Amino acid sequence: MRKNFFLATLLASSASISLSAFAQIPPSSEPPGLEQQDSSHDQPYHSLYPPPLPTTPQPLSVNPAHLPDISEIPADQLPTMAPQQGAHPQENDWPVYGHDDHQSRFSPLKQITPENVAQLKRTFIYHTGSLVPKGKANKWAPETTPIKVGSSLYLCSATNDMMRVDATNGQEKWHFHSGEKYESIPYTAACKGVTYFTSSLVPEGQPCHNRIMEATLDERLIQVDADTGALCPMFGHDGQVNLMQGIGWSVPGFVAMTTPPPVINGVAVVNHEVLDGQRRWAPSGVIRGYDAESGKFVWAWDVNNPDDHHQPAQDKFYSRGTPNSWAAMTGDNELGLVYVPTGNSAVDYYSALRTDAENKVSSSVVALDVKTGSPRWVFQTVHKDVWDYDIGSQATLFDAHAPDGSIIPALIMPTKRGQTFILDRRTGKPLPNFPVVEKAAPSPGFVPGDTRAPTQPWSVAVPRLGFPKLREADMWGMSPLDQLFCRIKFRRAAYTGEFTPPRLDKPWIEYPGYNGGSDWGSMAYDPQTGILLANWNNLPMYDALVTRRQADHLGLVSIDSPSYKPGGGGAEGNGAQADTPYGIIVAPFWNQFTKMMCNQPPYGMITAINLKTHSVLWQRPLGTARANGPWGLPTGMPFTIGTPNNGGPIITAGGVAFVAATTDNLLHAIDMKSGKELWHDVLPGGGQTTPMTYAVNGRQYVAVMAGGHHFMGTPISDSLVVYALPETTH
């Protein structure tokens, strides 16, 4: 009776919001891979929905453009890369997703200052034309940050259309239609940005000397001419490469790409998300490199086949279920490395079926050699992760100063735990003045055969983005009855602090939650002052494992099952975790009736950290109650309470930071010295993205995509909103 109450409570919680589904195939020490035989697919667990065999032909629907296979090119035959815009950006430009090759999210522009920022006015709104189709479930969350080169903005829509827009007035110069189908959208329709690439083979002034490249939700790599938007015929097959090659069995929406591919020494590196929690033997999380000039394949890093860097033969595929990387990657041309933030093996909340090779690289930053695809080093942020603490942030590069005055090429790696790791990017080892220590963690765990790691890594010299552990006495609500409800809920769950292990006999509280700390918005770093700026979340989760039979009874099936129903799950929440003994129920730790969290606010914060002194410069809640409230109803009150947020900040040399991200649908301007909010504007949709800034003819602009976010519950829009000071004031 008591277990049924827990299950009913969890289901009611998770049904109140748009969360995701998770998945299934057979347990074995060797996952189906290049050489795995069909006999490995005997089902030891009861399941109404057995998986297809590995030899099942790949449906044509996962290659919607019907692109032929691409050939290989040896790395030693790659042309020497021409200088790229991101290496030394023009002061007025923002040519890379994170502004520059270091992904600093810092602009040297200083026309906008704390003294005049309140005079910002909208100069234009550009509409991408990508909105939720009539009669279709809302999956929209564009998350786009434009880039700016010369006098043009380049951006992508939620469904991978690409556009060139006049940076001063929003006039559209060209619009490339990707032809992406709704069925190819995974959990979210998103395109975070595009890549600007300059060819060393095509002469200047010729078509496709400068190109715009994107990776799509339906697994294509596309290049168009930056001047005209026409496909580049010398790249791939008439401008496109099919990235489903070698992936094997899949269905539309199972794998997708949302981040701009970096180009390092001529190699365009692509990763992809694999829809969380569907099945243990989901499609591979393989990382691949392609010649940025021709689109030909260069190498693959396949975790369970580490010595084979080629494409699989026609009837083979990359090893299934390996950790995927869905975050934006960072390239390092000087060291010839790409820094890959990784997630978990397929199925987040059960680790017993993972291989040793997978356990070594999950929830890590992995430095891959861009000529070979081999790992140069690995730094792990969570050992044997069963909390969905995959790294969603992009690494930021900077030059650290050693005590002897020498320069150490360094890397900043934010995490969902609120731990920020500072590493030597040559070796992956923590910098001497930013040590990492292993602290005891709850172990061995409570799930048979699935032991937890006895220690976990902690970055002890960077202030943590987080609060103390939860206490029953601190449970929160709108009334004493709400507080009592949350206290009962707290007492009925297992909770021993961070890394509370999963259990079978009761729910457990996960804190920080999977959307805690820093996520895909990453951080901004000012190399002139050494200040790191981060907005982050404070949201616990309430989790429970359910038996395979219960998962079947609840209708938790993987996306490739004939019984899968769109909208029944996707990336964050309940899931089948097929091919394992257990499904998963995941919900916010909240009062599901009022939709208010059980921990007290703030739920969103912004923090400035001085890396030179290892101290917090300032910290405050981020986000107001104007569009938030109980039962999901907006209060209209402008009080700063700290709301959930997704998207990152930027810093300008003028001393002003900009961040949207919050569920109050505002763009915020913040004084970098004090943390005081100087100005804000109400956006036409949710601002779940990262802004950018640029200048044309001496006038500085700030741009933000106000596209909204289905999971965050903010209004959907196709509006890119651009601001500037009145022309008479600059």
From TrEMBL:
InterPro entries: PQQ_b-propeller_rpt (IPR018391), PQQ_mDH (IPR017511), PQQ_rpt_dom (IPR002372), Quinoprotein_ADH-like_sf (IPR011047). Keywords: Oxidoreductase, Signal. Its cofactor is pyrroloquinoline quinone. Pfam families: PQQ. Residues 26-71 are annotated as: Disordered. Residues 1-23 form the signal peptide. Residues 94-702 form the Pyrrolo-quinoline quinone repeat domain. Belongs to the bacterial PQQ dehydrogenase family. This is D-sorbitol dehydrogenase subunit SldA. It comes from Saccharibacter floricola DSM 15669.
